[in-house]
Write a structure and sequence with these properties.
By secondary structure, the chain is an alpha+beta fold. It has one domain: 3-Layer(aba) Sandwich (Glutaredoxin), CATH 3.40.30.10. A 4-stranded mixed β-sheet has the order 2-1-3-4, sandwiched between helices.
Length: 73
Amino acid sequence: MSITVYSKPACVQCTATTRALDSAGLSYDVIDLTQNEDALATVEELGYRQVPVVVAGDQHWAGFRPDKIGGLA
């Protein structure tokens, strides 16, 4: 399953999310929304207006969600 974390610089919840993914031994890609307008449009199409947004397979969520990350491990 591919995991993508849509993030922005200096985002505390984004850092917490990537650390939790690292701790769970999960690989992921990080996309900086301040550098990628297409990715920003994708996140907005999903209905989100905050970061991080995590897309893992067919599920997605916003914010730091250790419960969701634990479910991926």
